[in-house]
């Protein structure tokens, strides 16, 4: 557990040590007045009490109380500030790490589980430093301070009280084991519930259509029931063991009273010392009871720490500074790739010259999207090499690598912000004139001028307030503003109406001027002017050439072309045959 905490906070160790020092001082000032009050008791038992000494002690305790308030406020503020800043820093660190990870990692892991690490596990981590560690630090140093006073008064009774601490350890160990065991199951159930709920919300339209809402959506019901069961287990099973530790402390306090009475009757213990132990002995165990509970909570939070550490230790793609390409031809050299054990691409080799268009065509599952994903380094090749300007893309730092690409896909994502800010994602320091220029080129101003707030109109979650064609044009404007030398297109016009298709085609022509373009083509009519067409079949390049060359070969591409041409003339008959009786 300590290793996990240190792994996460090692970059913030100076701030953590400062917070810990404040908590240590606070713990000492909480316990010290209890020890000093014994001076008053001692003085009162004298035949002629010195009231000047007593009033001096009262004044000292008053000052210490004020000092305690000061350190309490400081330690609380410092620990909370540190925990909030640490959780913010940690989320950003995880986000930056996720950006540099291969897409294969996300394919193998539930997205809801990753979201749970960033949100819930980091929140648990925040609680460690906002509550658990400060309480533990205060308990440890408070107990240590009181122990010094107790040993000073009578070492025999002090040992009787302190010997309970190691005897409680086995109970704490058992509870920690149970918390760790059931905590992992609880986290899995929590993540499953989050994923099921997300699936339920995202698919609510289809669930309504098929009458599967409410109790009929069994997977969410089962996930919630499992979470309930695991939540009860993680609380109810270790809880009695932790309470047993408190009972052990109570028993040893009673033993110290009995032992004190024995020594007092035997004349080897002064009455005032015995009274001191009656007061301080019980106070000694109060922070220890807090410590046992907080330590068990800390063990549960260790499950979250382990998950955070596992994510941060996951391998990332290269992030070293290497020479950048000065030209932008793309070359695939004997590339092989597969998802898990399923082979998708086999020995793919081709060159896309600078400032040319290469189109990828083929049936679904032939490898078109995978080629673009490998080029964009969403995944890395299993065998072979991909180069840009003669430089292996795996040797280019990720920050520099993504400056080389603009992407326009069918599935456009817009942030819940204004059109203006969504476009400026492509170039955050762009001027208003630059934004307006690309919006004009992308055929956007025609519909923006009709919006109530112009380009400052909010587009809604994922652009929900705009049509599909409008979202596509904004995404093209964003890519234009970025002005990257390589453009990846998953043909944006595949599912648009004819009017929007005309606008998008004009915008795309503006975007790809003087760029190296790789396009996934669904409508073959849109890539007739491509410099190179690669016809993919079962993960291999079946044919390559220009549109005219491939048609003349009368092979696979020609078959795809003829199929689409015939399909374009298809129409619904509309006549129903009458059933014969």
TrEMBL record:
SMART domains: AAA. Residues 50-292 form the ABC transmembrane type-1 domain. It holds the Pfam family ABC_membrane. Keywords: ATP-binding, Membrane, Nucleotide-binding, Transmembrane, Transmembrane helix, Transport. The chain crosses the membrane at residues 20-41, 53-72, 128-149, 155-179, 241-265, 271-298. Residues 330-563 form the ABC transporter domain. It is found in: Membrane. InterPro entries: AAA+_ATPase, ABC1_TM_dom, ABC_transporter-like_ATP-bd, ABC_transporter-like_CS, Type_1_exporter. GO terms for molecular function: ABC-type transporter activity; ATP binding; ATP hydrolysis activity; ATPase-coupled lipid transmembrane transporter activity. It is a multi-pass membrane protein. Its main location: membrane. One of its GO terms (cellular component) is membrane. It comes from the Bacteria. This is ABC transporter ATP-binding protein. It comes from Arthrospiribacter ruber.
